[in-house]
Each structure stands twice: as structure tokens, then as C-alpha cells.
């Protein structure tokens, strides 16, 4: 196991995408774990999905009464990013801001170029000109495209993305590598695998399925139910991020005297892909148990098996061996436990918030 070389106590951490699903949970976890930490959050709060959920996440963070600063802005705004770094001594950056979604990238490509490429470039430039101990950034399992070899390893060749979203995430890894090599910036990329949980993203399948079932609509199950996904509970993702934040890849020189890029990439996934039909069955059972759906709900009448969507892949499966070796951690939340937590949150959130009724 690697030893930690970044102490978060007394440090200022910048988290982009702080109103997002992973970002907001990470902020809460850092405040729980570290007694003397300052967190700056930035998020553009786009209406890609229901902004009420984003504001609810921010409200939870604010209620902790910790050293927390939030600014509504886009990382694609270079002047704003530079001001953050100039006015604050930022030690660690966790870049989670990105335009997410595979299918949305087909109809709205501009959003991906702005946030995922220009925005990430601005973060890299700021890290270059200010002394940052560690840059951590979100990549995605989408970079593996239609690779046939499973489980997916970070040693695999990933030069054939099947969506613009995946291409931007692969580009992030390449850009980070170049900056690590040129400017000796310690950077770690994290390939997340299908993250789910309470207060998650409504564009994700489990959330979208639930919304449709509640309204009595039919859900479409792609690839005729033959998709497999490595569903990863959000708390497991955050656990991995917090551990990785505390170990920056070491700076060292090669035989030529030039820096070896202090650069790493890890998968964070459950290492246990689930068939989509099994996933939906468990979701239905937990929604009934949480009284989101009635006990006699006719599930068969509300599902439709359809072909694969453009940009999608049939299976995602994470090889987490390096994560286990270096950080002694492997995501392990059972799917039923995670979906139960989501169903209970959904019942409470939409049951108690009339303004949020679907």
C-alpha cells in the first residue's frame, strides 16, 4: 500500500462541480473527516437536470456550518478560475465539473467542448501557475468504448471512443499527462463506473426509470436487457476519492535527468457487473418496499425491450486491482443496499417536497 504524502489538515481544497452528485457528497465527507479544512466549491448549476436537487445538496453542505465557500460560475470562464487560484492558496484540486451523459453529447456537443475541454484546460493552466500539491480529476468508464477484453484495465488501449463524451474524458487524461510531464504537476485521473445513490442524477437510468414508473409510463431497457453495468454506490466512489487525494504521484527524474510525469489513472468500480434486467427487478422491489410504488404494481406492463442506443456499450466492468493494491480499498456496497438507500431517499424527497412533485 502507498503511504499518504498529502495532509489535508489546514489546507484549502477546490472542488469543481461541487453541487453535483459526487462533488456534494465529497464535500460533506471531507468536512466529516478533516477537522481543519477549507473547501471552495464552484459549479455552474446548469439546467441539464433538475436544479432543485442541486440546491438541496448545497443546502445540506451549508447546514454543516464549516469553512465553506461556494461560487456559481463555470470553469470555462478562464478569468474566474484564475481569480480563485490567485486569491486563495489552493493545495488540492478535485475537478468533477463536466457535462455528463453519453446520449446528450450527440445532440448538444458544444456543452462538452466548453466544460470538459476548455474548462479542464483552464484548471490545468491554473495548476501550472500556482503550487498545487495534487490534481485529481474525473474520467469515466466510457473511455473503454467497445473494448472486448473484460474486466477493463487502466493498462488497456483506449483509443476508440464511441461518443463525444468519452472522447472528452480520454482527452482530459492526455492533457493531464502532458501537463504532468511538462510542469511536474502531480495528477490522478479516476475512471468512474456508473455511479448511483440517493440524490443522484435524474438522467441516470435508475432515476429515470423510477420517474417513469411513478407516472405509469413505460421504461425502455436497451439492448433487449443484455447490457451489464458495473454499478458503483456513491459512498464507495467518495471513499476512493478521499484516499487518493491523500497520495500524490511522486515527482522523480528519469535517467535523462528529465521529470517522469507524476501521473496515475485508476478505475473506481464495483468489479461486479449486473445485468440490467436484474438491476431493474431489484429497483422495482425496493421502490415497492419504500412505498414509492404500490405492492400490486404491474411491472411487466411498463417495460419495453429495445435495441442499443448510439454511443452506448454493452458492458462495463472495472479491474480495481491497482486501487486495492495502492490504497487497500475496493468498492463493495451490494446493489440492493444501494438501491434501497435511493428508494428511501426518493420517497422522502418527493413525498415531503410538494414543489418537487414530478
From TrEMBL:
Gene3D superfamilies: NAD(P)-binding Rossmann-like Domain. Residues 13-269 form the NAD-dependent epimerase/dehydratase domain. Keywords: NAD. Pfam families: Epimerase. It comes from the Bacteria. The keyword Phosphoprotein does not apply. InterPro entries: Epimerase_deHydtase, NAD(P)-bd_dom_sf. Transmembrane segments: none annotated. This is NAD-dependent epimerase/dehydratase family protein. It comes from Bacteroides acidifaciens.
Amino acid at each position: 500500500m502507498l503511504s499518504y504524502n498529502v495532509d489535508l489538515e489546514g489546507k484549502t481544497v477546490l472542488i469543481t462541480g461541487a453541487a453535483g452528485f459526487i462533488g456534494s457528497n465529497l464535500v460533506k465527507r471531507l468536512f466529516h473527516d478533516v477537522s481543519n479544512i477549507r473547501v471552495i466549491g464552484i459549479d455552474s448549476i446548469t439546467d441539464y437536470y433538475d436544479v432543485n436537487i442541486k440546491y438541496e445538496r448545497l443546502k445540506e453542505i451549508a447546514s454543516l456550518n464549516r469553512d465553506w465557500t461556494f461560487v456559481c460560475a463555470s470553469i470555462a470562464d478562464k478569468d474566474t478560475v484564475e481569480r480563485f487560484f490567485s486569491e486563495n492558496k489552493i493545495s488540492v484540486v478535485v475537478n468533477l465539473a463536466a457535462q455528463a451523459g453519453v446520449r446528450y453529447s450527440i445532440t448538444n456537443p458544444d456543452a462538452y467542448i466548453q466544460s470538459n475541454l476548455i474548462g479542464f484546460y483552464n484548471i490545468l493552466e491554473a495548476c501550472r501557475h500556482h503550487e498545487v500539491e495534487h490534481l485529481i480529476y474525473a474520467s469515466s468508464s466510457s473511455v473503454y468504448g467497445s473494448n472486448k477484453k473484460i474486466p477493463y484495465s487502466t493498462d488497456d488501449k483506449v483509443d476508440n471512443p464511441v461518443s463525444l463524451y468519452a472522447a472528452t474524458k480520454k482527452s482530459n487524461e492526455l492533457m493531464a499527462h502532458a501537463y504532468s510531464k511538462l510542469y511536474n504537476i502531480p495528477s490522478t485521473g479516476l475512471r468512474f463506473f456508473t455511479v448511483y445513490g440517493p440524490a443522484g442524477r435524474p438522467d441516470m437510468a435508475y432515476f429515470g426509470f423510477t420517474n417513469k414508473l411513478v407516472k405509469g409510463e413505460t421504461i425502455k431497457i436497451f439492448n433487449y436487457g443484455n447490457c451489464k453495468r458495473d454499478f458503483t454506490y456513491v459512498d464507495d466512489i467518495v471513499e476512493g476519492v478521499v484516499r487518493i487525494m491523500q497520495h500524490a504521484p511522486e515527482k522523480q527524474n528519469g535517467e535523462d535527468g528529465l521529470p517522469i510525469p507524476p501521473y496515475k489513472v485508476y478505475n473506481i468500480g464495483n468489479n461486479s457487473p449486473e445485468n440490467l434486467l436484474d438491476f431493474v427487478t431489484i429497483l422495482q422491489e425496493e421502490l415497492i418496499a419504500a412505498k414509492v410504488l404500490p405492492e400490486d404494481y404491474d411491472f411487466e406492463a411498463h417495460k419495453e425491450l429495445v435495441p442499443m442506443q448510439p454511443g452506448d456499450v454493452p458492458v462495463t466492468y472495472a479491474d480495481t486491482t491497482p486501487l486495492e493494491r495502492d490504497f487497500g480499498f475496493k468498492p463493495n456496497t451490494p446493489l440492493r443496499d444501494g438501491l434501497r438507500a435511493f428508494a428511501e431517499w426518493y420517497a422522502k424527497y418527493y413525498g415531503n417536497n410538494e414543489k418537487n412533485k414530478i
